[in-house]
Amino acid sequence: MTTKTFDSVKLMRELRDKLSQEMEHMTAPERLRYIRGKAASTALGRKMAEDERDAAQQQA
After folding, report:
1. Residue 4 CA neighbour count, 13 Å, CB half
2. How far is CA 48 from CA 7, 13, 20, 23, 29, in A?
3. Crossing angle for the helix pair 28-40 and 8-23, nearest 10 degrees?
4. pTM over 0.70, yes/no
């Protein structure tokens, strides 16, 4: 049997609980701004924001 050196489920639960605690008194729009702000600090988040802007410009 292999011993786990990293428990991804435990990490996911800890992160989810931390975010829930941080956002518990926020309104829905505040939560969106908070999440987008957190995502903007990552390469994937920046790419998603760029794709959203491109899609909005194409629709205009």
Report:
1. 5
2. 28, 24, 22, 22, 18
3. 130
4. no
Give SS3 for 2. coil
> Which among 32, 58, 36 is positioned nearest to 48, based on CA atoms?
36
DSSP 8-state secondary structure symbol assigned to residue 28: H
DSSP 3-state of 3: coil
> In this structure, are residues 52 and 40 in contact, taking their beta carbons and an 8 Å threshold?
no
pLDDT tens string 1-60: 678 789 999 999 999 999 999 999 999 999 999 988 888 889 988 888 889 899 999 998
CA-closest candidate to residue 35, choices 25, 22, 47: 22
**Quick one: how far is CA 43 from the chain centroid?**
12
